[in-house]
Design a protein that fits this description.
Elements lengths: L3 H7 L5 E5 L2 E5 L12 E5 L3 E5 L6 H10 L4 E7 L10 H8 L2 E4 L24 E2 L5 E4 L2 E7 L8 E5 L4 E5 L17 H12 L5 E4 L8 H23 L6 H8 L8 H17 L3 E4 L2 E4 L2
Parallel strand pairs: 4-5, 5-6, 6-7, 11-12
Antiparallel strand pairs: 1-2, 2-3, 3-4, 8-9, 9-10, 10-11, 13-14
Length: about 290
């Protein structure tokens, strides 16, 4: 099933999906070309649980999430990053459960990006900021932070060693590549964060958007190859002479839904900034060219 309307019609909004003995998911009804069928909020553990990425400030989603944990203790609300499709429900869930909010650092930027849900959450106020390697735990589960900047500078993934699982946020998604949006999004950091995952032995990734990734190492290698191919496309395109980002996007993403072209332009810009830092390209205003 690949038709967006069919995917949305079949999506299990408001229902609890059990994905593994320690992992449940509740899907928010915020589908878009950038969120796939919506934000997947994860519940980790049983009895005493953690909630990862509670999602948008949507009353129906919050009610479904609270219904899913009725009779249980929510000890932690865990945030991968602070885009508005991930963290704004945290205050309501905290008020209803008494859980503490932990995870990434606060980050508020003006974001004029192409997707309405990509702005940063100005309400995010964590009780505890987790650094790389920090953990929170409950009966039978542990969540350990892995700093994976690139999509955003404050992005964290969370390892669940009891299940050899990684909650990958927006860093790795099985349905699409990740938008890297300057000035906060950083392509060099994103590539380094991808390579970091290759040294791990996770058996499954649970992204915030899309289905579980059951061959994570293979996917990560493919994402690295894809980004290198995009970089080579940019260099080849500039071999014909200086170009603007829209010029490059029109050619490189000719087969992609035009609604995604603004986001593609952000990733192209992120590649160009990285190439400029490495002395391969330079720009004069909006015109980019190879360095002689």
């Amino acid at each position: 099933m690949s038709d967006p309307a069919e995917l949305v019609a079949a999506a299990p909004y408001g229902r609890v999906e059990t994905l593994a003995p320690l992992v449940r998911r509740v899907l928010a009804r915020n589908p878009s070309p950038f969120t796939y069928t919506g934000t997947g909020t994860y519940i980790v553990g049983t009895g005493t649980v953690a909630i990862i990425d509670p999602g948008p400030d949507d009353a129906d989603h919050i009610a479904a999430l609270l219904d899913a944990v009725a009779g249980e203790t929510v000890s932690h609300i865990v945030i991968t990053h602070t885009h508005r499709d991930h963290s704004p429900a945290a205050p309501a869930v905290k008020a209803a459960t008494g859980a503490i909010v932990v995870g990434c650092a606060r980050l508020v930027l003006d974001d004029a990006g192409p997707r309405a849900d990509a702005g940063f959450d100005r309400t995010y106020d964590p009780d505890t900021v987790l650094a790389d390697g920090d953990s929170v735990s409950g009966p039978g589960w542990t969540l350990t932070a892995l700093h994976t900047p690139g999509h955003t500078s404050n992005h964290l993934c969370f390892a669940l060693p009891e299940a050899r699982a990684l909650f990958s946020g927006d860093h790795v998604m099985g349905w699409s590549t990740t938008v890297v949006s300057p000035p906060d999004g950083d392509m060099a950091a994103y590539m380094a964060s991808l390579r970091l995952l290759l040294d791990r032995d996770d058996a499954v990734y649970y992204p915030t958007h899309g289905a579980p990734v059951t061959e994570p190492q293979r996917l990560v290698r493919g994402l690295i190859t894809h980004r290198k191919q995009r970089e080579n496309q940019i260099v080849k395109s500039l071999g014909d002479g200086p170009k603007s980002v829209p010029d490059m996007v029109a050619t490189m993403y000719a087969s992609v839904d035009p609604r995604l072209h603004p986001a593609a332009g952000l990733s192209v810009t992120a590649h160009l900034i990285d190439l400029r830092a490495r002395g391969i390209v330079a720009n004069d205003g909006d015109a980019w060219a190879l360095v002689a």
